[in-house]
Amino acid sequence: MRKNSFKFKENRVLRIRQPRMKQTVMLKVDSQKPDIEKVRVAAKIIRKGGLVAFPTETVYGLGADALNPKAVLALFKAKKRPIDNPPIVHIENIHDVYRLAEQIPPTADQLMSEFWPGPLTLVFKRSKNVPDVTVAGLSTIAIRMPQHPVALALIRESKCPIAAPSANLAGKPSPTSANHVFNDLNGRIDAILDGGPTRIGVESTVLDLSVDPALVLRPGGTPLEALRKILGDVKLHPFVAAEKELPIEKARSPGMKHKHYAPNAQVIVVEGSIPAVLVKVKELAESYKLKGVKVGVMTTDETVEAYRADVVKSLGSRFNLAVVAQNLFRLLREFDTEGVDVIIAEGVSTEGLGLAVMNRLRKAAGYHIVKAG
Ligand code: TXA
Ligand code: MG
Description:
Elements lengths: L4 E3 L5 E3 L9 E4 L7 H12 L4 E4 L4 E6 L3 H11 L8 E3 L4 H6 E2 L3 H10 L4 E7 L13 E5 L4 H10 L3 E3 L13 H8 L5 E4 L10 E4 L6 E4 L5 H8 L3 E2 L29 E7 L1 H17 L4 E5 L11 E4 L6 H18 L3 E5 L7 H11 L4 E4 L1
Parallel strand pairs: 3-11, 4-11, 6-9, 8-12, 13-14, 15-18, 15-19, 16-17, 16-18
Antiparallel strand pairs: 1-2, 4-5, 5-10, 6-10, 7-8, 8-9, 12-13
Helix pairs in contact: 1-5, 9-10
The chain binds threonylcarbamoyladenylate and magnesium ion (MG).
């Protein structure tokens, strides 16, 4: 049977229309002092309604002109993203918040001056200036000012706010390098600004300021502890620290409903004290090995020597959660490249950046969590 076609009983062949393939251009730039000519090439593509992936300090984003509904629709298509899940709108000038949002609470000023530019996304009531598709028909909008020089230069040169979800195919681990983007989206987007690996490695924290008290919808690069220092009272949405699948009706952020961060391999997270985790991971690795499947163990420096499996990879020291966060998505992708069938992953602390790491890991595992002593 021909590729991309379905055969019906009566031998009729229905061809599926694929999005037209594009030539994806790779534009390599210095991460700190990006070549302005290359940024302008990318900005021109954005202004014409095209799609450009670019580095931020968290993960790579896939950008489109946030005020151009056609461009934003193309963004959803390229990523195969469900259209009920809106992207974050990226800005480089605080004044844009007042064009894009309404009913901005006084706490927002404090948060913006403390954490912007940086890995914090704020959710406000939307303004009517924003096309419906950009906010997926919601009454709110998610906005952030990224810290990466390439991202800021691209927004400035494009002269528009840039809608940008993470630049991965929907459901896959977020990209922390230009190569990850290329592997997922080559032929589906116009260009990639390659500014090297990203520094933080997990996405921004999403904080809903359209409710009082403020509510964390997604833990990320700005730790909860840092937000509490400024705001005092911050609530965590139950999905944030969930250890099992929660009913979809409880989702407040559309992203909570959708499958996320999943590599091709099945992921199992083992949580508990270090000695108990060590025993449990060994036991699981052994039992999967006996089933004849290719086993990967995702571990930390403290225990990496203890495991014998087909592929063993360390996230770094479990006492340096910034490094663990930086490596998480890259390692999940690397296990897929190695072709393992199952990834047995050690859990880490949920303090600081650990909350974001464990949220991603538990989701990647589809909440297949094993508690060890
Ligand atoms: O670090 C990041 O945030 C990266 C970089 C590229 O900036 N972006 C990113 O975007 O992670 P994305 O689209 O993969 O995740 C955006 C999250 C989703 O969970 C989405 O549901 C949520 O933000 N979101 C967007 N608009 C929202 C809104 N109005 N209300 C609640 N949640 C919203
Ligand atoms: Mg994403």
